[in-house]
Design a protein that fits this description.
CATH topology of one domain: GMP Synthetase, Chain A, domain 3
CATH superfamily of one domain: DnaA, N-terminal domain
Largest sheet: 3 strands, mixed
Number of helices: 9
Strand content: 5-15%
CATH class of one domain: Alpha Beta
Order of helices and strands: HHHHHHHEEHHE
Distance between the termini: 105 Å
């Protein structure tokens, strides 16, 4: 008697369970497709803190802040627009980008009108403010004033996250590219 021909007593009365082809194909597809990050975070918070709609009305009332019926007490007066905007920017994480844009916009007040007329802030990347100057003389002068400028930026715009300032002179012509460039070490007897 072959091992396959033997009847198993546990399986004798049962019918074999066969998964439906649609379920078998859709379940691996669901497992393979990861959820977007915001959906996963929402589901995790819902698991941790529970669904607010499922709580009873009494539980919601117990957790609510008591509101005083007396006017001009805490929580009753409207907030100023400045307080609301500050709270919104802090909650949304906009303080650093706003401080950076305010720094670039107020560059003339930061370094002075004459210096600002010969230098322009170009951008901020990884905590480094890049400033384009009209001439190499202005770039050198501003490099000598770098510590003063950086200190003033740290005082006025602490949320901007500026660690250093880079002053660039005007772009010099390059001989590396163009219609008359040649491979190799470049022109040698051009100006002689």
């Amino acid at each position: 008697m072959a091992p396959d021909d033997r009847a198993r007593p546990a399986d004798a009365g049962r019918e074999p369970v066969v998964a439906e082809p649609e379920q078998a194909q859709s379940e691996p597809a669901q497992r393979e497709a990861p959820l977007p990050e915001h959906v996963a975070v929402y589901q995790r918070f819902r698991r941790i803190f529970g669904d607010a709609g499922k709580r009873s009305a009494n539980a919601r009332k117990r957790n609510a802040k008591p509101v005083s019926g007396i006017p001009f007490t805490d929580g009753r007066d409207p907030h100023s627009i400045a307080d609301v905007m500050d709270a919104l920017t802090a909650r949304m994480g906009w303080t650093s980008p706003l401080a950076r844009s305010e720094l670039i916009a107020s560059w003339p007040a930061l370094v002075g009108e004459e210096t600002a007329s010969h230098s322009t802030p170009v951008g901020i990347e990884e905590g480094v403010l890049t400033v384009q100057c009209d001439s190499t003389a202005w770039a050198t002068q501003l490099r000598l004033m770098r510590s003063k400028v950086t200190t003033e930026i740290a005082k006025r715009f602490p949320d901007a996250g500026i660690q250093s300032v880079r002053f660039d002179g005007p772009n010099a012509p390059t001989w590396k590219r163009g219609p008359r460039s040649i491979p190799g070490r470049g022109p040698r007897d051009t100006y002689g």
